Amino acid sequence: MQRYSSVAIALHWMIAILIIGTFTLGLVMTDIPGLTPTKLRYFSWHKWAGVTVLALAALRLLWRLRSRPPAYPAHMPTWQRHAAHSLHGLLYVLMFAVPLSGYFYSLAAGVPVVYFGVFPLPTLIEADAALKPTLGALHYWLNMLLAALVAVHVLAALKHLLFDRDGVMQRMLPSSKTRSFR
Amino acid sequence: MTSLRFLLAAALLTGAAAHAAPLKTDLAKSSVSATFKQMNVPVEAKFKTFSAQIDYDAARPDASKATVDIGTASMDLGDAEYNREVAKKEWFNTAQFPKATFVSTSIKAAGADKLNVAGKLTIKGKTADVAFPLTVKTAGKQQVFEGQLPIKRLAFNIGEGEWKDTSMVADEVVIKFRVTAGQ
Question: Between chain B's N and C termini, which has fewer beta carbons within 10 Å?
Answer without folding.
Answer: N
